[in-house]
Amino acid sequence: MGVRHLDTYIRETVPGGFIRINIEDEIRYALKFIAKKYGELKVTMTHECDQELAAHVTKVNALAIISNDSDFLIYEGSWKYWSSREIQLPTLVTMEYNRAALVRHLDLSFQQMPLLATLSGNDIMPFDVVKLLHYQLGYGDKFSKLARYIKGLGNGPLNEAAIRNILSAFTNSSTWFKQFQQSLDTYSVNINPQDGSTTGDLVQEALSKQESAFMYLLWLEKRLDVSIGLVDMRRTDFGQDYGQLQISLIVHMAGIILFHRKPRQPTQCSIIIKTTHHEPHQAHSYPVVYPRGIETPTLLDLLSKDPVVLEDLQTVKYQLLAWIASDTLNPDELREVPPQLRITVFSVYYLLDQKVLELFEADLLLQVAYDVAFETYDPKAVDYPRKIASRPFRLVFLYQTIYGLATKAYRLVGLDDENFRDDPPFDGVLFHKRYDDWSKGQCELENIEEWRIYKELVSQSLKLEKKR
């Protein structure tokens, strides 16, 4: 194991910063910034993401992969493997995993590591299938026991007969042969990641170059795997289930993505999501909602960076962005919000429209965004709150999840420019420190008053309640 000062190491070792990053941790925004600043940001699309990334870094002789995925211990290559979990900010000191030392410790070869990973259980070969073999080998230090078992198989090729012989020791070879082979193949770096342009589909080509697979998957009618960002879904603090709050935004975005598809199909999109506390994470089909009364441009036009096209479509871009959140959101008012705060206003408007937020919570989220974006305070001078209540604690998770979808909406309509950032202007310590005072009306709205375009939602709700 070794420790590197990441920023210095990139500067001194690879001028230009040639590095590939698997972004999946809480520091993904910082890592993404480094990737853009020192090299190229590549999003995996055509294969299982770990495999495509490992194949690409091997092909281009990249310096390192930064991740928190044990699969990268299995792949062979000259690149280094640095921990994303151990990165310390702002120094960017992290830990390096020594893959060669692991192979030596197990007394195996790199060619045998895919078999070790497969027999250990993974996303393709579930642990419930291979656990009988583990029981047969005995408890304790399972990887060393698996390594000795693999050594006992010899160094011969893993042809169909050899694989079926291994499977017969603990399960039905006819049922699991295909997945066993697929698992072994997943750890191969001898693949050629496809270029979307080879399909002849210009939209697919354009979407394959986006920084997110979101639009790409919806265009290709693939299942969209959505995390709710929460673990405990038993409470009903916010009036409805968390999953539905995301689904509503997604099906509206799908309507824009698929609007010009010929024929306009599908009318349903498949989303893998956990909808309630008692249901598993599973696929559901939801009707796509298409824009009405808006002259919707093609995806290629929406994503175009041509200055003339950008200027011509500004009005309709904001119309579509507002429509994704609510029929009541005024696109002209949204357009007047400063770019640094626009996605925050979009997010809180949506959550207020869905009757999730209290008005003071929307105001506080906007005020915190204002203070962070315009650096009106010293973050180090803010004391940690003594106690955090359940509702604001849960609210932060929900808000940041919705904000993430809002950034996808912003990209979809092509409003992201070179200064666009998808990390929210947010300070959790500041938010929780102020929450109790703001809930009691002890707040100052002077700095954000002109951008509180959502406050009429509360006034309208109060009028309806009085009529009842």
Task: Describe the 3D structure.
The chain has helices spanning 6-13, 28-38, 49-60, 99-106, 113-120, 127-137, 142-152, 160-167, 173-186, 202-207, 214-219, 242-257, 299-303, 307-312, 314-325, 331-336, 339-353, 359-373, 390-412, 428-439, 455-467, and strands at 2-5, 20-21, 64-67, 80-83, 93-97, 224-225, 268-273, 282-287. It is an alpha/beta fold and 468 residues long. Strands 1-5-4-3-2 form a five-stranded mixed sheet, sandwiched between helices. A three-stranded mixed sheet has the order 6-7-8. β6, α12 (242-257) and β7 (268-273) form a beta-alpha-beta unit. α12 (242-257) packs antiparallel against α15 and α18 (359-373) packs antiparallel against α20 (428-439).
Write the SSE topology.
Elements lengths: L1 E4 H8 L6 E2 L6 H11 L10 H12 L3 E4 L12 E4 L9 E5 L1 H8 L6 H8 L6 H11 L4 H11 L7 H8 L5 H14 L15 H6 L6 H6 L4 E2 L16 H16 L10 E6 L8 E6 L11 H5 L3 H6 L1 H12 L5 H6 L2 H15 L5 H15 L16 H23 L15 H12 L15 H13 L1
Parallel strand pairs: 2-3, 3-4, 6-7
Antiparallel strand pairs: 1-5, 4-5, 7-8
